[in-house]
Amino acid sequence: xxxxxxxxxxxxxxxxxxEDQLQRVQMIATEHKxxxxxxxxxxxxxxxxxxxxxxxxxxxxxVDEEGREHIVNILGASQMFPxxxxxxxxxxxxxxxxxxxxxxxxxxxxxxxxxLNEDVEIARSVMRMMGKMILQLQAKLRELALFDARERxxxxxxxxxxxxxxxxxxxxxxxxxxxxxxxxxxxxxSRESVNRIWNEMRREGLLAGDKEEWIVDKNxxxxxxxx
Length: 227
What we know:
Blueprint: H1 2-9, H2 19-27, E1 29-34, E2 39-41, E3 49-55, E4 58-63, E5 69-75, E6 80-81, E7 95-98, E8 102-108, H3 109-118, H4 120-146, H5 149-164, E9 166-168, E10 171-174, H6 180-186, H7 191-203, E11 207-209, E12 214-216, H8 218-226
Antiparallel strand pairs: 1-8, 2-7, 3-6, 3-8, 4-5, 4-7, 9-10, 10-12, 11-12
């Protein structure tokens, strides 16, 4: 239980809550474990829970009319999904699959709504943080719309390095079981374009390693996020 509490306190949505308020959220939270390849939920299913990653990696994707998979996001520790959150009763907008052994914390949408109705201060805090998260997402989408192909790939690498990277002496190591086709789907590009740009970045020394573990150049990463 204490571990769940620590996880909840690290989540941006709950960071403004007091100790007592966090305890009330913890009381309606449950833990779920998934092996690699397990589905958390399927696109179109009735939405019952909102999930938070305690550890592991979750892939969110949608399938188009021709049966092609389009990755929406890859989520790691302390991240929330689906992003539509607690304030909407629409079905799950995509499919969630564990791409590594994962521990998740689930909160029932119904129980959380009851809690918000009972405690106005929790409701205000959550609404304030959700508003901030929406503004951050909008800013990222606006930036992506203005980027050229090279900048899109660079932004995605930076995002993964920031979220999942481990700093070592030779660079920032990122372990993600993601193919170039999947990366391309995430940023609206062709696999061939991602391959070309990826190889350019390798020749320039900005990327190293293999498909199982990328190594991102520390100086390039620092200059990219400060620009």
